Structure formats: C-alpha cells, structure tokens
C-alpha cells in the first residue's frame, strides 16, 4: 500500500497466471512495479473442472485438481519472488476472464501476459486479454510475448494506466 498521504496508486496489482512464459513475465513485471509503491501482488490462476461423466473430465476429484493448481501457482510465486514484495496466490475455479475481472475490482492494475494468438485484437493480446481490456474496472497492462527473449516481459506492450479502463493505446 502506498505511504500515508501519498497520491500514488492504491489497491493491489492483480496478475493472471496460467504457467505460460508470458504470464511468468507478467508476474515478474507486476512484482517490479509493486516493489517501489509497497502494493501487494495478487497472483491469480483460474481453472475449470468439467462435471463427472462429461467428455474430457479428469478422473481426479475436484479437490485434487484444485490442490494441484494451487501447488503449481505457489511454486511459481516462490520461484519469481522479489524481496520486500508481498504476494498472495489465489487458485480459483471458474472461467479465466470472469475470475480475473472479479479479482481486479478495487485493484490498482490488472496485469496479463499476451499469448498473441487469434485474429485482430486476439492477435495482439489474446481472447482473455481482449475481454479484460474491454470490461475491467481498473487499468490493464499487457506484457508482450517475446519469443526467444530470456527476459520476456521487460516492459508492457500496452498500458491503459493513463486512460479509461478498457481503452486501447
């Protein structure tokens, strides 16, 4: 949280984490951004579990699937941790776009990694990113995919911090 009397950003920095290279870069970027301001980082992974009997449903009970997602997220947070940055990890059952928008209510930023798949907007930022850009109630930062770059995500490709939520720069 920003210092008393500060006019700096308030609220946590929420980061969507799916284990991809770009989501790891987004988490690193968010931690670097949070450090100087004292904001908390909330690393969020969303997962779904089809009902038993549905095609493609895993044989593991929901609790085991949830625990596996939580373990993976916790390991990733530990691996990318920065001294002095508070990080809360949340593994939430639900569609990624819905979970991220819910968690981003009251946040100072929503940070996502771009996968760069699909057509038009999706070619730039991905379907979840595009949806969040249009529906988020806070500024959104998209960290670009940079194939072959070991320090992928050194800076955001698209930031709406100076504009209305959902605007495209």
Class in CATH?
Alpha Beta
Give the N-to-C terminal Cα separation: 27 Å
Full CATH superfamily name = HUPs
In CATH, the architecture is 3-Layer(aba) Sandwich
Shape: globular
Could you say what the CATH topology is called?
Rossmann fold
Q: How many DSSP-defined strands? A: 6
Instruction: Give the total of domains.
Output: 1
Family: Belongs to the universal stress protein A family.
Pfam families: Usp
InterPro entries: Rossmann-like_a/b/a_fold (IPR014729), Universal_stress_UspA (IPR006015), UspA (IPR006016)
Domain UspA: 12-144
Key traits:
169 residues, alpha/beta, Rossmann fold, 6-stranded mixed sheet, 5 helices, 6 strands, 17% strand, disordered N terminus, disordered C terminus
What does this structure look like?
This protein has a 6-stranded mixed beta sheet with strand order 3-2-1-4-5-6, sandwiched between helices. The two termini are 27 Å apart. The protein is an alpha/beta fold and 169 residues long. The longest helix is centred in the middle third of the chain and has 19 residues, at 62-80. It has a single domain, classed as Rossmann fold (3-Layer(aba) Sandwich), CATH 3.40.50.620. The protein is globular, with a radius of gyration of 16 Å. The chain has helices spanning 21-37, 62-80, 96-103, 120-125, 127-135, and strands spanning 13-16, 41-47, 87-93, 109-113, 140-143, 158-159. It has 5 helices and 6 strands, in the order βαβαβαβααββ. Helix content is 35%, strand content 17%. It holds the Pfam family Usp. InterPro entries: Rossmann-like_a/b/a_fold, Universal_stress_UspA, UspA.
């Amino acid at each position: 949280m920003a210092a008393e009397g500060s006019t700096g950003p308030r609220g946590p920095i929420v980061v969507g984490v799916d284990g991809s290279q770009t989501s790891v870069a987004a988490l690193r970027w968010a931690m670097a951004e949070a450090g100087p301001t004292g904001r908390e980082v909330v690393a969020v992974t969303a997962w779904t579990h089809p009902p038993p009997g549905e095609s493609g449903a895993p044989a593991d009970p929901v609790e085991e699937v949830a625990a596996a997602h939580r373990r993976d997220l916790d390991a990733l947070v530990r691996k990318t941790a920065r001294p002095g940055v508070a990080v809360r990890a949340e593994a939430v059952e639900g569609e990624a776009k819905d979970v991220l928008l819910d968690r981003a209510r009251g946040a100072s930023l929503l940070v996502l990694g771009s996968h760069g798949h699909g057509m038009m907007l999706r070619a730039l930022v991905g379907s979840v990113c595009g949806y969040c850009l249009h529906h988020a109630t806070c500024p959104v930062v998209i960290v670009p995919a940079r194939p072959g770059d070991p320090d992928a995500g050194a800076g955001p490709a698209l930031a709406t911090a100076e504009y209305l939520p959902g605007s495209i720069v």
